[in-house]
């Protein structure tokens, strides 16, 4: 389940890795997230910062393949913050 929360709420899980792709457009944010996640281990959490509105569609699509879980999505003034956990 994807939860969209307003900025200012503390996530229930702290990220172990961070990826800033603000200013980049499709397919860069999703491709870089996929690359980062491939080097992470089960239980790690990736924070992805992006401002491309297409990531709201593309990121969940990538995660639907079953190896990762989107814990939350935050939006603030057009900037998006995804927390993604490696589950496999």
End-to-end distance = 17 Å
**So how many helices?**
2
The CATH superfamily title? TusA-like domain
Shape: globular
What is the SS-derived class? alpha/beta
Q: Widest sheet: strand order?
A: 1-4-5-3-2
Q: C-alpha Rg, in Å?
A: 12 Å
CATH architecture: 2-Layer Sandwich
Explain what this protein looks like in three dimensions.
- The protein is 23% helix and 34% strand.
- 20% of the residues are buried.
- Strands 1-4-5-3-2 form a five-stranded mixed β-sheet, with helices on one face.
- Strand 4 (68-76) and strand 5 form a beta hairpin.
- It contains two helices and five strands.
- The protein has one domain (4-86): Translation Initiation Factor IF3, CATH 3.30.110.40.
- With 88 residues, it is α/β, with parallel strands linked by helices.
- Residues 1-7 have low confidence and may be disordered.
Looking at this protein, list some descriptive labels.
alpha/beta; Translation Initiation Factor IF3; 2 helices; 5 strands; 34% strand; disordered N terminus
Summarize the topology.
Elements: E1 4-6, E2 17-20, H1 28-38, E3 45-50, H2 55-63, E4 68-76, E5 79-86
Parallel strand pairs: 1-4, 2-3
Antiparallel strand pairs: 3-5, 4-5
């Amino acid at each position: 389940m994807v939860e969209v929360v307003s900025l200012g709420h503390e996530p229930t899980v702290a990220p172990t890795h961070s990826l800033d792709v603000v200013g980049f457009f499709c397919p860069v944010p999703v491709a870089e997230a996929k690359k980062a996640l491939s080097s992470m281990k089960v239980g790690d959490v990736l924070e992805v910062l992006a401002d491309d509105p297409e990531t709201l569609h593309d990121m969940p699509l990538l995660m639907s393949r079953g190896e990762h879980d989107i814990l939350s999505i935050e939006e603030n003034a057009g900037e998006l913050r995804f927390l993604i956990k490696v589950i496999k």
